[in-house]
Every structure is written in structure tokens, then in C-alpha cells.
Amino acid sequence: MTILTLSGLTKRYGAQTALDGVDLTLAAGERVALLGHNGAGKSTLMKLVLGLIPVDAGKVSVAGHAPGSSVARALTAYLPENAAFHPALTGREQIRHYLRLRGDDPAKADGLLERVGLGDAGRRRIGTYSKGMRQRIGLAQALIGAPRLMILDEPTSGLDPVSRREFYSLLDELSAAGTAILLSSHALSEVEARTDRIAILSDGRLVAEGSLPELRIRAALPLTVHLRPRDGQADQLASAFPEASMANGVLSFSCPATDKLAVMGRISGLAPQIDDFEVLPPSLDDIYSHISRRAA
Ligand SMILES: Nc1ncnc2c1ncn2[C@@H]1O[C@H](COP(=O)(O)OP(=O)(O)O)[C@@H](O)[C@H]1O
Ligand SMILES: [Mg+2]
After folding, report:
1. Ligand 2 centroid vs 283 CA: distance in angstroms?
2. Same structural domain for residues 123 and 259?
3. Rounded to 5, what percent of the chain is helix, strand, coil?
4. Which of 29, 162, 225, 278 is the most exposed place for a label (fewest CB within 10 A)?
């Protein structure tokens, strides 16, 4: 079932086009990462989905409903970029306040805090929370009303790796229960394999979309090979790999991913001269900057 459909979505601020003909769909339970440099249009796309700002062209449909309509609002939860909470309130008081605003029962606060791992901390003031804990308050707020679509604007920026992993575990549970999740980030290494699909925005245009393995293949970036020669074998090994350069006693070169087996064959043929070797795939950030740069 499709929860969110964007077709030809276009938004201008004066002479500047912030979003240009973006098409994207999210199915129930799907986790999609929206990646893009600062100013790429991520927050604008999210505000259009929420109906907070009007579209200039194209269409947003939230399970068949117009963005900002009462049905769409009831189906959708939003965690804004840099969400601010009242530092003097306890987590529990803040969530009770949000529940009251939504016309919901404040007694549900404890269950929501438990779900995001703030069961005990809910009695402490938000002013004492870490960034990761504040993001969880944001997520508890977004969970009010059991949304079918979650829009999370840079929810993991500034989180340490442990908090980020915990945050993604919560998203896994939500997606398993059928909630579609659209989250934005400016770094591919922040979203990694914890999303089903990645959509890359650059200057308002959707320049790539697919799973991480698909984007990896599409970027077709070379592998990096490191060879450590055995004692006394450096010169001979270097002459067998004229494409390599030597630094700190290690020979390095890059090769197309399609040559991987051929290179492995050359390496194993020279095993007596080699102490150790590594073959490194392109990093997530290499892939991301390659795709964004090619688009620009
Ligand atoms: N309210 C606004 N008025 C004018 N320009 C805006 C406004 N909001 C965003 N922009 C511009 O639109 C572009 C996209 O911004 P934004 O959607 O915030 O990008 P991102 O979230 O990817 O960093 C940027 O160039 C930004 O300066
Ligand atoms: Mg933004």
C-alpha cells in the first residue's frame, strides 16, 4: 500500500527553485533516507508533505489525501530539524503537554517514554538531557497518535554512534509495524544500511534513488588495493605492480571493481613476496559525493 506519493513536486522561493520536479513514493513500512547537501531542498520537501507551505507545481498525496488536510495530519508525524523542547520541563511533562495539545490522554506519556527508552529519565528535566535523549523525546512526541507516516528531519545529526544505533532500532520496530518513514540526512554514513531506499537530492533535483547496493553499482567507483611486501621484496613487488605507489612501506593502487578477480589472481601469483594485503570497497561517503558531484 502506498502511503506517500510525490509527483513533479516543485517549489520556488522568489527566483530560486528549491525543489524541481521531484517524484517519490513510500510504501507502508518502507524506510527511505532523503540525502542532500545543505540547501538541497530536504526540509522544503518535508514541509510540502506536511502541508506547511504550498506547492508551486506537482502534487503530494498522503494515502490519497491532500497534505495538511485533517486526515493527512492525523496520519502523519513530524520531527523538525533542531526540535527544541522546554529545558525546565521534565520529559514526562513535555510529552503530557503534547498529548493534551493533540486532544489525547496525558496518561499515555509513560508508555511513550518507555517505548523510546526514557522510562526513568522522564522524571528529569530536559535541560539535563544529552542530544540523543532529546532526539528520543522528539521521537516520543512523533509517536503520539500511532502515525502511518513519519517525517524526520535530520534526526541523527549530532548523535554518537551508539545513540544513532538505538534510534534506528526504534525506527526498525515502527517500520515492522507498517509505518512509512522518510528521514533526511546530509551524510550517507549516518543512514547506512538501516534504510530500505536512498533518495539523493542535489540543488532541488532528485539525482539518484535506489538501495545502497544499487547506488554502489551505479557509482562504479574503483576499489583500493594495499599490498605490504615481505622484507626485502619491496622493489620486486613494486615492479610487478607499476600502477601502484609506495607510501609508508605499503604499495597502493586503485582498480575498477570489475577487475577485482583479475587483481586477486595477480596477488596470489606473487604470494611469496607479499606479507599482507587489503582490498577496500569505496566508502559510503565516496559513493555519495561521487553521485552528488556528477549531478552538479
Ligand atoms: N523560507 C524560505 N525563504 C527563502 N528561501 C528558502 C526558504 N527556505 C528554504 N529556502 C532556500 O531553499 C533551498 C532549500 O532549502 P532547504 O529545503 O532548507 O534545504 P535542506 O533542508 O536540504 O538544507 C535553500 O537554498 C534555502 O536557502
Ligand atoms: Mg534542512
Report:
1. 24
2. no
3. 40, 30, 30
4. 162
Tell whether ligand 1 has an atom less than 6 A from the beta carbon of residue 70: no
Question: C-alpha cell of 223?
Answer: 576499489
Give, for all 296 residues of the chain, the pLDDT tens digit. 999 999 999 999 999 999 999 999 999 999 999 999 999 999 999 999 999 999 999 999 999 999 999 999 999 999 998 888 999 999 999 999 999 998 999 999 999 999 888 999 999 999 999 888 998 899 999 999 889 999 999 998 878 888 888 888 889 989 999 999 999 998 877 776 678 999 999 999 999 999 888 888 888 899 999 999 999 999 999 999 999 999 999 999 999 989 999 999 999 999 999 999 999 988 878 888 888 876 66
| Domain count for the chain | 2
19 Cβ closer than 6 Å to some ligand 1 atom: no
User: How much is the pTM?
Assistant: 0.86
Does 215 reside within a domain?
A: no
**Nearest ligand 1 atom, CA 36:** 22
Question: Among 210, 235, 267, where does a domain finish?
Answer: 210
> Does ligand 1 have an atom closer than 6 angstroms to the CB of 80?
no
Structural domain boundaries enclosing 54: 2-210
Residue from 11, 13, 200 whose mutation best tests the ligand 1 pocket (most atoms within 8 A of CB) = 13
Q: Which of 188, 210, 232 is the last residue of a domain?
A: 210
Residues with CB under 5 A from ligand 2 (ion): 42-43, 81
C-alpha cell at position 225: 588495493
